[in-house]
Amino acid sequence: MALGFRFQDFVPEESGEKGFDTLFKLFMQLVTITSGDVGEALQWLNELDKQYGLTDNDYGMGDFIEDLKKKGYIDENPQEPGAFNITAKSEQNIRKSALEEIFGKLKKGNSGNHATPHSGQGDEAGTDMRSYEFGDTLEQIQMTESLRNAQLNHGLSGDFMLTEGDLEVRDTEHKTQTSTVLMIDISHSMILYGEDRITPAKKVAMALAELVKQKYPKDFLDVIVFGNDAWEIKVKDLPYLQVGPYHTNTVAGLELAMDLLRKRKTANKQIFMITDGKPTCLKEPTGYYKNSFGLDRKVVNKTLNLAAAARRLKIPITTFMIAQDPYLREFVEEFTEVNQGKAYYSGLKGLGHLVFEDYKKNRRKSL
Questions:
Q1: Domain range spanning residue 79?
Q2: pLDDT per residue as tens digits for the range 336-354
Q3: 201-236, pLDDT tens digit by residue?
Q4: SS3 of 286, please?
Q5: First CA to last CA distance, the chain
Q6: In a domain, 290, yes or no
Q7: CA-CA distances (angstroms) from residue 315 to 37, 262, 277, 310, 359?
Q8: CA–CA distance from 120 to each of 125, 161, 183 (Å)?
Q9: How many domains does the chain have?
Q10: Residue 282's domain is classified under what CATH number?
């Protein structure tokens, strides 16, 4: 029986549901940009509606707001009549949207673990193929690849045969838990010169958090932010994250990250740091030491000392530098060399992909 395609007349979706879905995707983006301010997000959405005609007489913006309430995405603010807050359902949806936008749609895994650099008789198939060796199991033999090799190696002789030399196996990988601290720079420069750098950083953090929850549930992910000081935030607080009038106290961020990782009993530990600038601030007993002009050796030396301390604790630091200034690159290269970690000089567009790939590799080289 031949297989093919069967066509029929296109029947559009119900206008109300279609209208909600279109508006909802935009609303999720806007509420992330406005750091969870529902009122501001709806005002922007109204402006977009005026410009692009997102609604019609059958489904208007008022209908959309009512649907947001009915579906449990927003609720009224008890302290401010007429104002709305996003709900926990919206927070989770924002994380899922960020994951799909940045990493693509990923299927949930069962084991929730990461691959070590060691291959062998592990519990999950790897991606690397190799020739058969004595002791490999039958389950590891890849028949399609092995038969192809036999055809290429012996097919011309007319007598088909499958020999040991034709066999290919797929390596399996041992698994381990990983503890990661994600550091996000919230200094003023993250919105300087009209460029919004904090929103992509938030999206990456939310996507990474959702990735860990879905694919690696046994892993630990802590998120901290750093400006003049550093503090830990919950994953649910990420949509509300804002930049402040802060300098960049990288030392405080690293100290907090290392303290959090010391408490984790996992073998593999790592720090991801998303920043767009140089360290410019230290906290001292008498107050804050600040210098935004160039690279202050006092600040830099303390930062490098912590990079070395993390290396001694076998905690690699991956720096995602959202800047291209030559003197900043020089600092990051020195910082990375001291820690024996890794550095990326990324634009905002490719940031999520880099974070995902590095997390997926589980710092194989450094661990």
A1: 15-86
A2: 999 998 888 766 666 776 7
A3: 888 888 888 888 887 888 899 999 999 999 999 999
A4: coil
A5: 54
A6: yes
A7: 37, 10, 22, 5, 14
A8: 10, 28, 34
A9: 3
A10: 3.40.50.410
